[in-house]
Design goal:
Layout lengths: L13 H9 L3 H23 L2 H18 L9 H23 L27 H19 L3 H12 L4 H7 L4 H18 L1 H7 L1
Helix pairs in contact: 1-2, 2-3, 2-4, 2-6, 3-4, 6-8, 7-8
Length: about 200
């Protein structure tokens, strides 16, 4: 395997990192993993609501990506390609769980919940009562999202947490733009029903 050159995620583009990775530069691929592991984990976690399994699935996605990297033609952005791999890995897991649960997806939630947009370190200390209200609201939202189907959870996370445009979501999943809009409409409606008291108190 060729020797690895040092890479700086702040200076090197995904295209360059992919090319180096395809040439056998494992450090370049490590940089891609570091750059995107949080987003891939967030996606898997929000879909299956199990922290340990989500990390395992994220790791499996990166392993599959490394093995498939020689065949990556760069006809799409690296993250789009990686996301599709992670999407397929996660849905294969969900299908297996569905079979094991006799036709039902396993949406059982773990005690520990992680917000997809959570910071690694706090920016500042909030007042205790404010922090408690924020924590309670965050938990309520996580619980409401967990009750959605995996498909609806996915579009909500991509749109509301990652802030992607409809066209970007359509390319990532992939599905038609109309399907994205339909799933978002349904997901938002269900969340509003479950969080009706929150909406009423914030108006």
């Amino acid at each position: 395997m060729p020797s690895s050159a040092a890479t700086d995620p702040g200076e090197v583009s995904d295209i360059d990192l992919v090319k180096r990775s395809q040439a056998g530069d494992t450090r370049a691929f490590d940089t891609l993993v570091t750059k995107y592991r949080g987003r891939i984990y967030a996606m898997t976690y929000h879909l299956i609501q199990n922290e340990t399994e989500a990390w395992d699935l994220a790791q499996e996605a990166f392993i599959k990506a490394w093995r498939a990297l020689p065949n990556f033609k760069q006809d799409a952005a690296f993250y789009t390609w990686l996301y599709r791999i992670a999407h397929n890995v996660t849905y294969d897991w969900l299908r297996k769980k569905k079979i094991q649960a006799d036709g039902e997806f396993d949406d059982e939630r773990t005690e520990h919940r992680v917000a997809a947009g959570a910071e690694a370190t706090p920016k500042g200390d909030a007042a205790p009562d404010t922090a408690m209200r924020n924590a309670e609201l965050g938990q309520r939202i996580q619980e409401a999202i967990a009750k959605l189907s995996p498909e609806h959870r996915q579009v909500i996370v991509l749109r509301e947490v990652e802030g992607l445009a409809y066209e970007e979501i359509s390319a990532l999943i992939p599905c038609s733009l109309g399907t994205v809009m339909s799933r978002l409409f349904y997901a938002r409606k269900k969340l509003q029903e479950q969080l009706k008291d929150v909406y009423e108190t914030t108006l």
